[in-house]
Specification:
Elements lengths: L2 E6 L9 E5 H7 L2 H8 L9 H13 L3 E2 L2 E2 L3 E8 L2 E4 L2 E5 L4 E6 L13 H15 L8 H18 L15 H16 L1
Parallel strand pairs: 2-5
Antiparallel strand pairs: 1-8, 3-4, 5-6, 5-7, 7-8
């Protein structure tokens, strides 16, 4: 069981970063309208201007858009547990040929036995595998996706240089920041 979506990206892409976003936000991204807004800066007639800009602002808050450009290569959803954070078995990935692939393993929209998008799913899967060079040895498509995601998570976690986390945990007192700068300059001069 999964939700698979594949869409052509028309926006510029300015980053190869991997983003971790909240699982609830990732689920919202599975909505076809959200993915269309993410992939293209053209509004289209089927969506109101106000709703389009509401979605654009949400995508910016999630870190997926920077100005008008896509600012990621891959996205993994996470959830907070008592032991820290846990990456779930889902992914959003932009291929080198500018195709956005969205795979949510926890959604129940499609079942492999009667899936109407099997061919697209296989093509999307193969595109991601070719780019990330993760070896997969599963015949079942849903199990192959889980192996791919597991391999990518391992690659990601073993290659982290640093992590910057955006969280609302309080305000920085600007007077203290100014004082710290003055203190640093005084120590260098003195």
């Amino acid at each position: 069981m999964c939700l698979f979506r594949k869409i052509r990206v028309e926006r510029p892409i300015i980053s190869n970063e991997v983003l971790l976003i909240k699982k609830d936000d990732f689920v919202h991204l599975g909505d076809e309208i959200y993915l269309r807004v993410l992939a293209s800066d053209k509004r289209g007639e089927e969506i109101s201007k106000s709703y389009y800009y509401f979605i654009v602002n949400r995508l910016r808050q999630m870190g997926l858009l920077l100005d008008n450009a896509i600012s990621f290569k891959a996205v993994f959803p996470f959830e907070v547990t008592s032991n820290g954070i846990s990456l779930t078995d889902s992914i959003m990935f932009i291929t080198d040929d500018k195709t956005l692939v969205y795979y949510n393993s926890e959604n129940t929209v499609y079942s492999c036995e009667s899936c109407p998008v099997t061919l697209e799913c296989i093509n999307g899967f193969k595109s991601v595998v070719r780019e990330v060079k993760v070896e997969i040895r599963n015949d079942e498509l849903d199990e192959a996706w889980l192996s791919l995601i597991s391999g990518l998570k391992f690659k990601l976690l073993s290659n982290i240089k640093f992590a910057r986390v955006k969280a609302d945990i309080g305000n920085i007192n600007l007077k203290e920041r100014t004082f710290a700068k003055q203190l640093k300059v005084t120590q260098i001069d003195g």
